[in-house]
């Protein structure tokens, strides 16, 4: 070799020595007689991001390849080529991370999935797998338009906003990434102000009931049609029919509702030994002045009876909304079975 002439490069090893056919694996090539401007090919295709670190080290990224198996690693400097035969093995691309599902649930007994009250903190957990990357080495990014996340990884907590117009659908999104690929998935959470919603729904029913001109179907429109409420709903329908037959309400007062949300963990107790299952109970003070239309056990036709007491309204959570389930009236004064 003449003085100043470039020696033939020698390729001794490549690390790592295998990677996916999609390419992009960061590798370190060691050997000797490397120089600036060196070109690297793997399996005959040019590597990318080639950096000559020293006379004995080159870093690069593998090119993609259409088939698996061994590939020659070659370094070319000034027209001279050094090759290590079959040094890098292409393998089937393992693919991206997989998100099998995301669960979002609060800690209250029997609380439904995908539900949160304002300012409530719920647990959000993703089932994630990756064919070649340990879970603790994946990158997790959680996002939502409102509310805040705490923690990191596959299981985090999410706190609903303190104030919002409800019901409010909120999408919680997760993006999971390894060194090559990423995957995303989302779960929908319905945010509520349950005490207000339950109380408003109970009062709306009683206000509608108190207007004797409103059709019965309209009065009953917010009742659940599900199997949990069939008995109490049918009983309430009969009560409204009887009231429309026997009375015309002339004056009413519907007070503020006192609400308990329990998700069927503790029955609502309307009267002694009469527990009614429900996800929420509303206690509403009411009073009615009516015209008795027909003589019945409580009044004579033409009389103007007065009654006041407490109305107990049961509600259930179905889908993404609160629904009425049943109602029972306890009179303190006047006629007892106005409803």
Can you describe this structure?
The chain is mainly beta and 339 residues long. The chain folds into 3 domains: 82 residues, Sandwich (Immunoglobulin-like); 95 residues, Immunoglobulins (Immunoglobulin-like, Sandwich), CATH 2.60.40; 141 residues, Nuclear Transport Factor 2, Chain: A. Helix content is 11%, strand content 50%. The strands form 6 sheets. The protein has a 5-stranded mixed beta sheet with strand order 2-9-8-4-5, with no helix packed on it. Strands 18, 19, 22, 23 and 24 form a 5-stranded antiparallel beta sheet that branches. The model has no long low-confidence stretch (mean pLDDT 93).
Helix and strand topology:
Elements (H helix, E strand, L loop, with lengths): L9 E6 L2 E3 L5 E7 L6 E4 L2 E2 L1 E7 L2 E5 L7 E9 L2 E12 L6 E8 L9 E3 L3 E9 L9 E5 L4 E3 L4 E5 L8 E10 L4 E11 L1 H17 L5 H4 L10 H17 E8 L3 E4 L6 E4 L2 E3 L3 E13 L13 E13 L2 E14 L5
Parallel strand pairs: 2-9, 11-17
Antiparallel strand pairs: 1-3, 3-7, 4-5, 4-8, 6-7, 8-9, 10-12, 12-15, 13-16, 14-15, 16-17, 18-22, 19-22, 20-21, 22-23, 23-24
């Amino acid at each position: 070799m003449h003085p100043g002439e470039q020696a033939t490069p020698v390729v001794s090893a490549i690390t790592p020595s295998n990677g996916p056919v999609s390419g992009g694996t960061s590798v370190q090539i060691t050997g000797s007689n490397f120089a600036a401007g060196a070109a690297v090919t793997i399996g005959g295709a040019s590597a990318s991001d080639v950096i000559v670190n020293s006379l004995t080290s080159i870093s690069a990224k593998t090119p993609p390849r259409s088939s698996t198996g061994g590939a020659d690693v070659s370094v070319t400097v000034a027209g001279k080529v050094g090759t290590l035969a079959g040094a890098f093995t292409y393998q089937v691309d393992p693919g991206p991370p997989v998100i099998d599902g995301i669960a979002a649930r609060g800690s209250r007994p029997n609380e439904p999935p995908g539900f949160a009250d304002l300012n409530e903190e719920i647990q959000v957990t993703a089932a994630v797998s990756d064919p070649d990357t340990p879970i603790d080495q994946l990158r997790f990014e959680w996002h939502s338009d409102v509310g805040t996340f705490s923690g990191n990884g596959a299981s985090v907590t999410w706190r609903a906003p303190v104030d919002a117009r409800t019901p409010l659908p909120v999408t919680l999104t997760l993006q999971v990434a390894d060194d090559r690929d990423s995957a995303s998935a989302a779960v929908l959470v319905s945010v509520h102000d349950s005490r207000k919603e339950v109380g408003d729904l109970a009062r709306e029913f009683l206000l509608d009931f108190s207007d004797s001109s409103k059709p019965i179907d309209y009065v009953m429109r917010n009742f659940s049609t599900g199997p949990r409420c069939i008995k109490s709903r049918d009983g309430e329908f009969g009560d409204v029919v009887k009231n429309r037959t026997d009375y015309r309400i002339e004056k009413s007062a519907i007070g503020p509702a006192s609400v308990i949300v329990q998700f069927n963990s503790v029955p609502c107790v309307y009267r002694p030994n009469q527990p009614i299952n429900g996800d929420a109970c509303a206690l509403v003070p009411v009073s009615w002045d009516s015209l008795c239309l027909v003589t019945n056990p409580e009044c004579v036709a033409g009389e103007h009876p007065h009654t006041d007491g407490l109305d107990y309204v049961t509600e259930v959570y179905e889908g993404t909304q609160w629904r009425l389930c049943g109602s029972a009236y306890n009179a303190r004064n006047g006629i007892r079975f106005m409803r």
